[in-house]
């Protein structure tokens, strides 16, 4: 196999090749590293732009050629900075999408576990037995209420009592 075809067919670490791709945590870590690197490059370019602008001001009308060269470099740095801004936006969007999809996957997995647990809990329950049990409970509550009513009624001992 040629180097070019190997490059396009298989890039990535040996650990991720065995599983069919990187884990979400690995991908998120790499995206964060890339964001960090691009942010540092942004800061570097911003300082370079400020330096070139200072050089252009310093030379001003005295050395127009040096001032123009500084402004051209400044423009080139600004173009690179603009490209990095767009790249950072894309990476941030991709990272957020990956975080959301990872969260959704975890939620779905946990919902599956909960469904299995509910199934296991309910497999020993029979609706007919539950219905019978509920009827028994209702009957016993009725009996308890009748007993409570009988006890709470005042007994009439007054006039019929004989000494």
Automatic annotation (TrEMBL):
Family from the record: Belongs to the SNF7 family.
Main location: cytoplasm
Gene of this entry: Chmp4c
Intracellular or extracellular location(s): Cytoplasm, Cytosol; Late endosome membrane
Membrane protein topology class: Peripheral membrane protein
Tree of life domain: Eukaryota
Record's keyword annotation contains Cell membrane: no
Protein name (database record): CHM4C protein
Keyword Heme appears in the UniProt entry: no
Pfam short name (any one): Snf7
InterPro entries: Snf7_fam
Single GO BP term: late endosome to vacuole transport via multivesicular body sorting pathway
GO cellular component, one term: cytosol
PANTHER family named among the record's database cross-references: CHARGED MULTIVESICULAR BODY PROTEIN, CHARGED MULTIVESICULAR BODY PROTEIN 4C
Region Disordered, residue ranges: 1-25
Composition bias type Gly residues, residue spans: 9-21
Keywords annotated in UniProt: Coiled coil, Cytoplasm, Endosome, Membrane, Protein transport, Transport
């Amino acid at each position: 196999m040629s180097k070019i075809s190997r490059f396009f067919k298989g890039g990535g670490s040996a650990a991720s090749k065995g599983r069919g791709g990187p884990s979400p945590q690995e991908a998120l870590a790499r995206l964060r590293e890339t964001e960090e690197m691009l942010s540092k490059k942004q800061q570097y370019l911003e300082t370079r732009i400020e330096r070139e602008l200072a050089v252009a001001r310093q030379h001003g009308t005295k050395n127009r050629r040096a001032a123009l060269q500084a402004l051209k470099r400044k423009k080139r740095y600004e173009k690179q900075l603009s490209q990095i801004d767009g790249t950072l936006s894309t990476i941030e969007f991709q990272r957020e999408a990956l975080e959301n999809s990872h969260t959704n996957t975890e939620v779905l997995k946990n919902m599956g576990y909960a469904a299995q647990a509910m199934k296991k809990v309910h497999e020993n329950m029979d609706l007919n037995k539950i219905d019978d049990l509920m009827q028994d409970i209702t009957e016993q509550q009725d009996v308890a209420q009748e007993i409570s009513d009988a006890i709470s009624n005042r007994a009439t001992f007054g006039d019929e009592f004989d000494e």
